[in-house]
C-alpha cells in the first residue's frame, strides 16, 4: 500500500490536537482540505481512524494503533529529505519579530561569521515556530517557553540564552510621565495595556504575571497594529501604559515616554531546536556555541536580585541557561 505523506501528516496533526481547526492551522491548510486528506487516508487503509461527535474528535482503536507508526513515517521522510540536501543550505532560524532581541543576536552572529548562511523567519509566536520545527521547516527558534497554549513538544529542547530588559511606555500626560525612573510598586492599580488579538500566549502570560505581581489591571482590549499604532494609542489615553523593550525607539515629537523600571522586568528568550535529529543542520552547533559563549562573556543571563524581575516560573531556567 502506498501512503500519501501529506495525509499521514494530517492524521498526526489531528491526533495530537483532537481538533480539525487547530490541526489545519498548524499545517496552513483549510479545515475542509484537511478533512478530505483524512477521509482519503481512511479509504486507503480501509478503516476509520477517528470517532467524530458533536463535541469534537477522538482516536478510535485503529487510529491509536496507527499513530506511532505514522509518526515514524513522518520522521523517516523528514530525515531522508535532510540527508539528501546539501550542507550548504542556510541555517533556518525563527527570530520571532523584527523589534525583539533575537534578530539582533542573529544579525551579530552573521557579522561575526560571514561564511554562515542564515535564513531568518518571523512567526511572532513560539507555538507557531515549534510546529514548524517539528515539521522540519526550520532548524531553530527563539521564544519564551512558558505559558504556551499547548503542552511542550517532547521532540524539542530549549536553553535560556538571553534576558531582554523591559521599560514602561506611557503617555507624557500620565501622572508618572515626568519620572526619570519609576519604582514598579508605583504602578499598583494602573492599567497595563496588552491587546489580546495580536499577542501570543507566552507573551500575554509574561504580562499577566507581571500585572498580578505588581497589582496592576491587565487590559487586553484593542489591537496592536505596530509601533506607530502603539504610539497613537498610548498618546491618546492618559492612563494607559505598556511594557516595551528598553531600546524601543520613541520619536522626539511623540506624546509618549519610555521610562526605566526598578526592579526591571526581564523577558527570557530561549533557543529551541529539535532533539535527537539523525541529521541536524551542520551549523546548528555554531549557533548554540555562539549564544553560549557570548552570553557567558557578556552576562546575558544576569538577573540581579532586587534590581531585576522575572516570573517565578522562568527562574529555574537560569540554572540551565
Write structural notes for this entry.
Residues 1-60 form the HTH lysR-type domain. Pfam families: HTH_1 (PF00126). Belongs to the LysR transcriptional regulatory family. Keywords: DNA-binding, Transcription, Transcription regulation. It comes from Actinomadura alba. The protein is of the alpha/beta class and 321 residues long. The chain has two domains: 5-84, Arc Repressor Mutant, subunit A, CATH 1.10.10; 87-321, D-Maltodextrin-Binding Protein, domain 2 (3-Layer(aba) Sandwich). The protein has ten helices and 13 strands. The protein has helices at residues 5-17, 20-27, 31-45, 61-84, 101-112, 126-134, 201-213, 227-236, 284-297, 317-320; strands at residues 50-53, 56-59, 91-94, 118-121, 140-143, 156-171, 181-183, 191-193, 217-219, 240-245, 256-262, 264-274, 308-309. Strands 3, 4, 5, 6, 7, 8, 9, 10, 11, 12 and 13 form an eleven-stranded mixed beta sheet that branches. A hairpin with a 2-residue loop joins strand 1 (50-53) and strand 2 (56-59). The longest helix is centred in the first third of the chain and has 24 residues, at 61-84. The N and C termini lie far apart (47 Å).
The topology string of helices and strands comes to HHHEEHEHEHEEEEHEHEEEHEH
Poorly predicted runs are none
**Percentage of residues in helical conformation:** 25-40%
Indicate the mean pLDDT.
91
Structural class call reads alpha/beta
Keywords: DNA-binding, Transcription, Transcription regulation
Protein name: LysR family transcriptional regulator
Family: Belongs to the LysR transcriptional regulatory family.
Pfam family, one: HTH_1
